[in-house]
Design goal:
The protein is mainly alpha-helical. The protein contains 11 helices and 3 strands. Helix 5 packs across helix 6 and helix 8 runs antiparallel to helix 9. The structure holds zinc ion (ZN). Zinc ion binds next to helix 5 and helix 6.
Length: about 260
């Protein structure tokens, strides 16, 4: 058992009103509760303990969690579905990000799922991570538009993360392309920065994009092409969602297979 899961020291997360409202709407539509658990610190609800502890005993899951600030763990037990938003407190302290900003993002994914806009089916094996990233490219555009509509202030924490990432890239020795998974993740990140933030909307935006492009010029070309394709054509509508997923899947494949390469 993961010892850090056993502490119970702090008050429950206080959500700003727009997030509380969004969470309640998703819970009502999807017929299940969303639990927010900060690790370490928050008590794990009794009904989730067995499943969650078993996951944290798996090295791959524990390693994945250690690298992330927040993730949503969704599982079905008998008739019930449970969604647990897990926040990694040590990582959050590193980035100075607020729980609210991270929770808003996770709620966005849950909101899309509650409306029937499911992420691509996870394929076990090496292609599994590709599905996560091409799904994120489309989901992030939709969930950010909804966050804006609800007046949720998500940009400051991303600007801080991107600024810090840009700084460390600037000072890092030249990095290689990375494996397929990493390249797909970088492509998704390029889309996030370009579609989530207007040109020059924060100081480090252009430098960050050019440092990313230097690492993988092919990815930059594909990101720009994909954004043009999706522009104005992606909305909360099944056929446009499926079409957009198909476009982002093809974009990732082009990147990995190098069909755009000169
Ligand atoms: Zn996401």
């Amino acid at each position: 058992m993961w010892p850090a899961l056993l502490f119970a020291l702090q008050l429950p997360v206080a959500l700003p009103a727009p997030l509380e409202e969004w969470k309640a709407e998703i819970e009502a539509r999807a017929f299940h509760r969303i639990e927010i658990i900060r690790i370490p610190g928050d008590p794990v609800p009794e009904e989730d303990q067995e499943v969650l502890f078993s996951y944290f005993n798996r090295p791959d899951f524990a390693a994945q969690f250690a690298r992330t600030q927040a993730l949503t763990f969704r599982y079905v037990k008998g008739e019930r579905t449970r969604s647990l938003i897990l926040l990694n407190l040590p990582m959050m302290q590193n980035t100075q990000n607020s729980a609210a900003a991270l929770i808003a993002h996770e709620l966005g994914h849950l909101w899309l799922a509650s409306l029937g806009f499911s992420p691509p089916v996870y394929e076990p094996g090496p292609r599994g991570c590709l599905a996560i990233h091409y799904g994120d490219m489309v989901q992030h555009i939709l969930l950010r538009a909804e966050s804006d509509r609800r007046g949720i202030l998500w940009r400051p924490s991303y600007e801080r993360d991107y600024t810090a990432a840009s700084e460390s890239l600037r000072n890092a020795p030249q990095q290689g392309l990375g494996d397929d998974c990493f390249r797909a993740q970088r492509l998704s990140l390029m889309l996030d920065v370009r579609t989530g933030f207007e040109t020059k909307s924060f100081g480090a935006r252009e430098e960050y994009l050019s440092l990313l492009a230097k690492q993988d010029p092919e990815a930059e070309a594909i990101a720009i092409e994909l954004i043009e394709k999706l522009d104005g054509r992606l909305g909360l509508e099944k056929t446009s969602y499926e079409w957009a997923l198909e476009q982002s899947r093809a974009a990732v494949n082009r990147l990995i297979e190098g069909r755009n390469a000169p």
